[in-house]
Amino acid sequence: MNGSGIAIGDIVSVLKEKGLFVSLSQPEGAAGLDTPLVGCTFDSREVKPGYLFFAKGIHFHPRYLTSAVEAGAACYVANEQLADELKDLPAARSCLGIVVTDVRLAMAAIPPVFYDHPDRDLTIVGVTGTKGKSSTTVMLRTILKAEHRSAGIMGSILNDDGIENFEAFNTTPEAPELWRHLDNCRKAGHKAMLLEVSSQALKYNRVLGVPFSIACFTNISRDHISPVEHRDFADYLASKLRIFERCHTAVVNLGTDHLDEVMAAAKQAERVVTIGVEHPEADACATTIHSDETDAVFTLTLSPALSETAGEPQTVEVKLGMPGAFNVENALTAIACARIMGVPMECILEGLRHVHVPGRMDMIRSKDGQVIGIVDFAHNKYSYEAIFGYVHQEYPEHTIVSIFGARGDKAQERRHECPEVASRYSDFMILSEEDPAHEDVLALCEEVASHLPAGANYEIQVDRELAAKRAFEYARGHRPAVVLLLAKGAETHQQRGDNFVTVKSDMELAKEFIEG
Questions:
Q1: DSSP letter string, 331-361
Q2: Do 501 and 492 touch, CB atoms closer than 8 A?
Q3: So what's the pLDDT on residue 311?
Q4: What are 469-502's pLDDT values in tens digits?
């Protein structure tokens, strides 16, 4: 609907129905309640004539409202405190203002109505967890493609709703953006949307009201604990568990930590399906896993709840087109979702055989085969242990060189956990830029270095391109060798301040420097 037929008065009615409405400020000459709306956003830079503007955020500046009104905003929505602060602003005295109890709840309530409930025409799959969200959604999308079923996807690798297609900057967007993508997905003729759901999205109600047909919980471990994210692990876990608040079917990995709490929350769903490696009680169980440099092969047993054979278990051999036994759990989650969605087993096998997850275990070899570059998005203790454990096991005679850093402004525990893991396996480490945001890159690298053990072999090279060049130089002098380029995956940007600056991807750097 794109807002066609939706007037300001309709939005006010929704807010009253939800118990969010407080008051209305309608200065002389401002838009009336019968004024139609053509868009809604929280970003003043995106406002066009006829838009609804959400004034939100603890760092909201009055100039944002001024900018929105100058761009033609028909009305704005703000909470009571902010509305009081803005009331004497010239922009506020010329634009209709809607005061609400909670602007974030309003941001979740308005877009579904504005876009005429695209969720009613989509199977929405949400995947949360400390690790594996991207791989799971890409695997599921590849499976659906094998059945010639199209689906939108949103997450930390790619946003593709069938109309808009771009590299992701945030795992889960704010509610107005999310619902626009759901609407685009429906317009494009897709029948499903696959969403990575971050703990921040759950904590701050970005997905509030999104009815998940399937909600998946891959795993949980300590991460995102910082003053600007989650105050402690309990808050992190509680936020993750909110994915089950409004879902039809829950998919849970029996191998996750804190399983009792996860299963208790999952029981809010009408149906619970389980997956697990070496968990024979799981509805989708993997055993006898064999992984080499290119593939992982395992035996899959499906319970009668997921099996194609009525009332009987089903056992098949699965070939996963990417290495690493740690990827099998992600494949199991994708398989369970696909079977819940009615995808035939032959399409599941075909999809997984040819799956490629950009920036996840991407490999390149030198012409002589003596130097291997591996690009992976590993960025926390859990994923570091998985990737380094795999490389140590698969290449026991190789020199291991690693490039990594630390994100600015968040995830502070990674700054000591990641170097602790990397130093156990790496023969040489280069600390470099990794989305510094508002922090100084050199200071971040030095902080990471302070957590390396005495005598660790490392260098600091804040320029990631020069870091990659140095890493491959070292590898060629200590061959056979593996160079791990970590945390950026397929990304082609670095966050510096509030800007995302275009850079070469880690795979581009690996291709450029692997031969010297």
A1: HHHHHHHHHHTT--HHHHHHHHHT---TTSS
A2: no
A3: 84
A4: 999 999 999 999 999 999 999 999 999 998 999 9
Query: Residue 250 and residue 421: Cα distance in Å, rounded?
Result: 32
Please, which residues bridge with residue 365 across strands? 372
The structure's pTM equals 0.90
Sorted by sequence, the CB contacts under 8 Å of residue 234 that are 6+ apart come out as: none
8 A C-beta contact, residue 301 and residue 287:
yes
The residue with tokens 């990641």 is 418
DSSP structure string for 153-210: EESSSEEE-SS-EEE-SSSS--HHHHHHHHHHHHHTT-SEEEEE--HHHHHTTTTTT-
CB atoms inside a 10 Å sphere around CB 463:
13
Q: Sheet containing 165-167: which strands, arranged edge to edge?
A: 165-167, 158-160, 152-154, 192-196, 123-128, 212-217, 247-253, 271-277, 284-291, 296-302, 314-320
List CB contacts of 429: < 8 A, sequence separation 6 or more: 401, 402, 403, 404, 419, 422, 423, 452, 456, 457, 458, 459
For residue 249, the SS3 value is strand
Name which of 352, 360, 392 is nearest 376 in CA terms.
Answer: 360
CB 510 within 8 Å of CB 373: yes
